[in-house]
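Service request form, structural biology core

Requester: graduate student, group of Dr. S.
Request type: structure prediction, single chain
Budget code: on file
Notes: please return the result as structure tokens.

Sequence provided:
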Amino acid sequence: MKIPVIVLISVLAVALAISLTTVYRMNGKVLFMRDMVNEYNNRVELVATQRDTLAFINSAFTARMDSLPSLRHTADSLQVRLDEAELVRNYLGYYLIIDTGQNRFHLRRGGLLVRSGYCGTGKGWTANDSGLVWNFSTPRGLRYVVKRGENPYWFKPDWYWLEQNLRPPRPGEDILIPDSLSWEDQIVYYNDSLTSIERVWVRAVPGALGNFKVDLGGGILLHYGVGRGRNVSHGCIRLSNSDLEAIYRALPVGAPVLIY
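Core staff response, request fulfilled:
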């Protein structure tokens, strides 16, 4: 009996020793894994802190960037007020103020408001599918009426086609409206006798600008157009027919136009 007992005790002792060794090793691995987890958590916390810091910096820069147009508009508005004060002292006629931020116009005389309403102004930077880029902003500052006209034509510039990813027509490729017709009949011919595709290739379009135009130079006109109250134009100031006629009647050549 003694030998089997001794053998059993020896086996149990060996098993216990192996178990203790295994537990010790597992404990060491657990401690190692715990240290790794703690280190990983520390790194995650560091990265999270860096992310939050970068997010704060980014939001600060974004807020600053978003505020720049507002600050510029405010500064331009103050400059317009100064220019207007100078006008009131030295100019007795009608003058026009264009607010490109609110897309409103104010026709004034001697500092007094005569007429006000909505207008459409430039839409800013624009690109087509080919990567061509244009700045269709309405230029700010003090300008003057350089020309006026009735029954104007819209002579489409090349960017009209390029913006639509089309090739501008070469000489002889554009569609002409018979010049033997009156201006009113040309409008009817354009709208009723041409297909929508043919109208795209008419370079000199009657009636598109309304019955009047006020030219501020540099390709910037006051004319009839849709989208009033928004930044939608290619730089010109779009008005309703009634507002355009009132401004046309009021502003002679040389009249000041303040744009901000």
